[in-house]
Specification:
The structure is a homodimer of 335-residue chains. Chain A has eight helices and 14 strands. By secondary structure, the first copy, chain A, is of the alpha/beta class. Chain A has two domains: 175 residues, Dihydroxyacetone kinase, domain 1 (Rossmann fold), CATH 3.40.50.10440; 147 residues, 2-Layer Sandwich (Hypothetical Protein Tm841, Chain: A,domain 3). In chain A, strand 1 and strand 2 form a beta hairpin. In chain A, helix 2 packs across helix 3, helix 4 runs antiparallel to helix 5 and helix 6 crosses helix 7. The first copy, chain A, starts with 10 loop residues before the first helix and ends with a strand. In chain A, 64% of the residues are buried.
């Protein structure tokens, strides 16, 4: 294992320290090893609904990279691929609370769901209203290594972006939670791995893929997908991902969508755009119009090579919220 | 070789096609296989100095990802790791010309330098004034596989950003070229590779590194660096890169700099921030103040794992130009 790290036990702490220093104009780190979280440099906005997300580290820029105006108020980085405990989630929730309540955006992994639930109960005891939205956009498998039901994957960035814009324009707690839920309900994803990734403290790849094998439906922690197949062309792989996504979504001709091609961390940008090119043509063939696009590394799996495709059905309100200004280390436009 | 591609001969063409479609609000592709270039969606601005760069593909987002307001007017993607020929450079130069002349920003590789020179001569014959600036920020080696003198590496993004802002505010041809030159003169870089990368049409890694070996001073095409050493900690590697950079730059206590930690394409963001953290501490120990920071994948080498560090000495004007709005697919702020 070759990595740009110092100590396998210090990867998250040192990375968050560097991240907060590099983006000190936008974010601060609690710096507390017992309750590590990242929040907006300016603190909570009075009267605004707070947005908190988090989960195991190793998916950067998710979630810390999406803290800032128009998106999250706080993010809780767990250990690598490991859910954060309730204490830091509670601390982040308190930091994000501006008196109007806090929405928890939780990827559907059993540990995350349980720990965010506990933190929400603790926050309620301190008179902070919490609404929770669970993201489960991955159509690949039902139940998985760490999950009952479907997994939450790359679409999480879209939930955070759009719900963040709703909170920023002044929506109340239930409305922000409702728009986050609406994004999740109208969105499906599926991914492919060309290579595995290595969690630092594990020291070896999380699974094995033969030199000519790829895994269709991979999870963002390397959990098993639908099938292993011989490596094939980008166009064929794109179709293998997009077909189940569109069938499950029930995308019909004439509909407008957002197309997200997400890199797993180790994929050259040039390859993501080749996947995007095919996805666009595939959608056009079905009469589905791509109204907005996002291509890049947003929800990664360390250095894994691979990509995922997310399709979100858009309406005018979701489009407007997606377009709204966002100023975070990982996503930035319009301001 | 497993890659998300269709045909090794179509990688650049299909990638550029996808890129232009994904960012149609910002850029257009010429779509001409004989003269492929990317330019601003709005065309050249009358009276503004045009900025053109280019070079072998495989370093995305450089250069096409930096076309847009406040940065490049056009970019010319060659084949993978191969200089573009004069024809597309000439076509891009004509597209970028708004009547005030065009600055060529050229990374110092023999093929790039020759082909941009030829294109500049052809443009002059069509009454377009061209000024050229050669970027050679890599302190690792003098002369290299494809280079006489020093190589142009990650600092190129800073030249493009700052010169782009100078052009946008209305500086004339010689002034834009002068500020680009000033950035190059005040900037040094050095990189490290943990793994090699594979050029699609080559089909095998461009060099071999043992499982416990890293290469200090690597070029962005995998050209040899200064030395191969046993893999060591991120902090030690950071010091091995930063020491020659700062010595060559002659950075003195009390000076203010921009610190760029650039990923080579396959490096997790978490690792880049660990390198950034150490670089910041190292600079602080020397009394050098980091006034601006940039961390991410800007000048990559396909899926190579590794990073480079660039230090740019700042003054008030360079800082102001760096901070100016930029709206490109790969770099965006302030607008």
């Amino acid at each position: 294992m070759k990595k740009l790290i110092n100590d396998v036990h210090e990867v998250v702490a040192q990375s968050v320290e560097g991240f907060a220093a590099a983006h000190a104009d936008l974010v601060i780190s609690s710096g507390d090893p017992e309750a590590l979280f990242i929040s907006r440099a300016g603190g909570a906005s009075a009267g605004k609904v707070g947005l908190v997300s988090g989960g195991g580290s190793g998916h950067e820029p998710l979630h810390g990279g999406f803290v800032g105006r128009g998106m999250l108020d706080a993010a809780v980085p767990g250990a690598m691929f490991t859910s954060p405990t309730p204490d830091p989630i509670l601390a982040a929730t308190k930091a994000a609370d501006g008196g109007a309540g806090v929405v928890h955006i939780v990827k559907n992994y059993t540990g995350d769901v349980l720990n965010f639930e506990t933190a929400a109960e603790l926050a309620q005891m301190e008179d902070i209203d919490v609404a929770s939205v669970v993201v489960d956009d991955d159509v690949a498998v039902q139940d998985s290594l760490y999950t009952a039901g479907r997994r939450g994957v790359a679409g999480t960035v879209l939930v955070e972006k759009i719900a963040g814009a709703a909170a920023e324009r002044g929506d109340d707690l239930q409305s922000v939670a409702a728009v986050a839920q609406r994004v999740n309900d109208n969105m499906r994803s599926m991914g492919v791995a060309l290579t595995a990734c290595t969690v630092p403290h594990a020291g070896q790849p999380s699974f094995d893929l033969a030199p000519d094998e790829i895994e269709i439906g991979i999870g963002i922690h390397g959990e098993p997908g639908r099938e292993r197949i011989k490596a094939t062309s980008a166009d064929e792989i794109t179709d293998l991902l997009l077909n189940p996504v569109l069938e499950d979504l029930g995308a019909a001709s004439g509909e407008q969508v957002l197309l997200l091609v997400n890199g797993m961390g180790g994929t050259p940008a040039s390859e993501l755009y080749i996947v995007y090119r095919r996805a666009l043509a595939h959608l056009a063939d079905r009469g589905v119009q791509v109204r907005r696009s996002l291509v890049g590394n947003y929800v990664t799996s360390l250095e894994m090579q691979g990509a995922s495709i997310t399709v979100l059905r858009l309406d005018d309100e979701l489009t407007q919220l997606y377009d709204a200004p966002v100023v975070t280390p990982g996503l930035r436009w319009g301001a």
